[in-house]
From TrEMBL:
<dbReference type="Pfam" id="PF18913">
    <property type="entry name" value="FBPase_C"/>
</dbReference>
<keyword id="KW-0963">Cytoplasm</keyword>
<comment type="similarity">
    <text>Belongs to the FBPase class 1 family.</text>
</comment>
<keyword id="KW-0460">Magnesium</keyword>
<keyword id="KW-0119">Carbohydrate metabolism</keyword>
<keyword id="KW-0479">Metal-binding</keyword>
<protein>
    <recommendedName>
        <fullName>Fructose-1,6-bisphosphatase, cytosolic</fullName>
        <ecNumber>3.1.3.11</ecNumber>
    </recommendedName>
</protein>
<feature type="domain" description="Fructose-1-6-bisphosphatase class 1 C-terminal">
    <location>
        <begin position="202"/>
        <end position="331"/>
    </location>
</feature>
<dbReference type="Pfam" id="PF00316">
    <property type="entry name" value="FBPase"/>
</dbReference>
<dbReference type="InterPro" id="IPR033391">
    <property type="entry name" value="FBPase_N"/>
</dbReference>
<dbReference type="InterPro" id="IPR000146">
    <property type="entry name" value="FBPase_class-1"/>
</dbReference>
<dbReference type="InterPro" id="IPR044015">
    <property type="entry name" value="FBPase_C_dom"/>
</dbReference>
<keyword id="KW-0378">Hydrolase</keyword>
<dbReference type="InterPro" id="IPR020548">
    <property type="entry name" value="Fructose_bisphosphatase_AS"/>
</dbReference>
<feature type="domain" description="Fructose-1-6-bisphosphatase class I N-terminal">
    <location>
        <begin position="12"/>
        <end position="197"/>
    </location>
</feature>
<dbReference type="InterPro" id="IPR028343">
    <property type="entry name" value="FBPtase"/>
</dbReference>
Length: 335
């Protein structure tokens, strides 16, 4: 119930995980629950660091670079270290892949789960206060399987869960372990993520398109024609609005809530797109499909791609089912 606008029935993420697991996996030993709670602690820590970044000299460059050749921000390094330490300590992980670490991290004597993550995506936005986020995917290996990078070089169809945490005007966690994604909001006074939407659904059509128009001279004909159709519909319908934050978690969260389409296509310069398959494309595709939306490349579903390397990139178009179908008509049209 709600009294004076306050929920008098708070369901925290740890409680939700236990109830959900008991319902969906009554024979589970609770290892996934331990892992999800560890992820929850790391996200709360990063949210706290992001909130006080300006006050504790956490803004600005750390003077180091990563495999992406990008300048690492201090917060990038803090977030990466927190996730690696908390996941290692959980005792549930055998392989970790982070955008900020060149090679996979193998944890000997670890657990059955592997986590691929971008600890702080959108970091170019940190210093100007624009929303940033954490994205992660969870794989499960057979007990007999040795811990190796092979545990995570699997298609997104083999993910057992995915989540993102948006450090925005409020801190939102969106999480699915096979069902429709649940949306939690961090209540700072409790220090807990509290359930706000039990089952998220992407509207089947939206009126927002989201793409970096600064790359338009690089797009292929199909993408150019589709974007033109968004701006000036040939059926005389109303144009779509352009919303582009430049932080994938913010752009995807808005797309799931409001509908529409988010695009980072391959283009003449970024021939495989810019976003990373393992810890950006796949987890977001898993969450959007779990919410009834779609996520494709120029060729087919993102989740069908079998990765060859942990930092490989993929083009991605995701969002409302009908908007993706309209895009597909352009992608499949004869050039
Ligand atoms: P561009 C942020 O650096 C990021 O990895 C994603 O969060 C975001 O969607 C994309 O890159 C933005 O890229 O080329 O439009 O600045």
């Amino acid at each position: 119930g709600v009294t004076n606008g306050l929920s008098t029935d708070p369901l925290t993420l740890p409680q939700w995980v236990l109830v959900q697991q008991q319902k969906e996996a009554p024979h589970a030993r609770g290892n996934l629950s331990i892992l999800l709670n560890a992820i929850c602690v790391a996200c709360k820590f990063v949210d706290s660091a992001v909130r006080k970044a300006g006050l504790s000299d956490l803004l600005g460059l750390a003077g180091t670079g990563n495999i992406q050749g990008e300048d690492q921000k201090k917060l990038d390094i803090v977030a990466n270290e927190v996730f690696i330490n908390v996941l290692r300590r959980s005792g549930q992980c055998s392989v970790l892949v982070s955008e900020e670490v060149d090679d996979e991290v193998i944890i000997e004597g670890g657990g059955e789960y592997s986590v691929v993550f971008d600890p702080l995506d959108g970091s170019s936005n940190i210093d100007c206060g624009v929303s940033i986020g954490t994205i992660l995917g969870i794989y499960k290996k057979e007990k007999t399987e040795a811990p190796s990078v092979k545990n995570v070089l699997k298609s997104g169809r083999e993910l057992v869960g995915a989540a993102y945490c948006l450090y925005g005007s409020s801190c939102s966690m969106v999480l699915s372990v096979g069902k429709q994604p649940a949306h939690f909001t961090l209540d700072p006074s409790l220090g807990e993520f509290v359930l706000t939407t039990p089952a998220m659904s992407v509207p089947e059509k939206g009126n927002i398109y989201s793409i970096n128009e600064g790359n338009s001279v690089l797009w292929d004909t199909a993408v150019s024609r589709y974007v033109q159709e968004c701006k000036n519909p040939s059926n005389g319908g109303s144009p779509k609005s352009l919303r582009y934050v430049g932080s994938m978690v913010a752009d995807v969260h808005r797309t799931i809530l409001y509908g529409g389409i988010f695009m980072y296509p391959a283009d003449r310069k970024a021939t495989k797109g810019k976003l990373r398959l393992l810890y950006e494309g796949n987890p977001m595709a898993y969450l959007v499909e779990s919410a009834g939306g779609r996520a494709i490349t120029h060729e087919g579903p993102v989740l069908d791609i079998v990765p060859a390397s942990i930092h490989e990139r993929c083009p991605i178009f995701l969002g409302s089912r009908i908007d993706i179908e309209e895009l597909e008509a352009f992608l499949h049209a004869k050039a």
